[in-house]
Amino acid sequence: MFTLVLIDDDIPVQPTDFRDDYRVQLKRQIESKYVDRVIPNAGLCIAFYDFANIKDAIVYPGDGKLACGEAYFKVEFNLVVFRPIVDEWLVGSLSSSTEKGLSLSLGFFQEVEIPSSNLRTPYTFDALQQMWVWQYRNADTMEHINFFYEKDELVRFRVMSVDFPEATGPEANKRETPMKIVGAVDRDGLGCVSWWPENE
Fold first, then answer.
1. CATH, domain range 2-82
2. CA 6, CA 45: separation in Å to the nearest integer?
3. Could you read off the pLDDT tens digit of each residue along the chain, which spans 200 residues?
4. Radius of gyration of the chain from Cα atoms?
5. What CATH number belongs to 89-195?
6. Which residues are CB-neighbours of 69 under 8 A, at least 6 positions away?
7. How many angstroms separate the first and last alpha carbons of the chain?
């Protein structure tokens, strides 16, 4: 679920911060730039981990307007990123249901989609309650039981893919999320956590 990613970047330190420990300033700049942001094809940055290499800084002359004589350090550093692997099982909270499927939240990450085609069969959509239903049938008694995907329920799902949609223009960039998880609840043990007692 979480992994380390090595990043190589030029990180500025302002002249007013030269008197302080430059490593503290570099860490602060890195956290401001990367934490809580999606790194394309890598994942959601959760935290700064450590420095791998810090090279000598290059100080550029300032003009007193746009540039103020910042020192740019070429830095290699590790970040903790969230990027689950395919077939990993996770638990999220059901935030909404539509005819297209389920939307889940992991708390720190909101973009989890379960398409209707990835639900446990047989299933149906209750348009009146805006809720998906797993229509379970007991093979021994032939009894039918409806299990509802209720809002805010904890849902266990498996990861089908982690996508990084590419924006095709300014408008597309507003609509698309930079990272999306597509999941499925099509196996025993998956679906609402309350359906599966822990002792079974």
1. 3.30.1490.120
2. 12
3. 899 999 999 998 877 666 678 889 999 999 999 999 999 999 999 999 999 999 988 877 655 555 556 788 999 999 999 999 999 999 999 999 999 999 999 999 999 999 999 999 999 999 999 999 999 988 777 788 999 999 999 999 999 999 998 866 555 555 568 999 999 999 999 999 999 987 54
4. 23
5. 2.40.50.140
6. 15, 59, 60, 61, 62
7. 26
Please, are residues 173 and 165 in contact by the beta-carbon 8 Å criterion? no
Q: Which two tokens stand for residue 200?
A: 């079974």
Q: What does the alpha-carbon distance between residue 164 and residue 173 come to, in Å, rounded to a whole number? A: 12
The structural domains of the chain, with segments of one domain joined by +, span 2-82, 89-195
Residue 105 is predicted with a pLDDT of: 97
Which residue in the block uniquely carries the two structure tokens 């503290």? 24
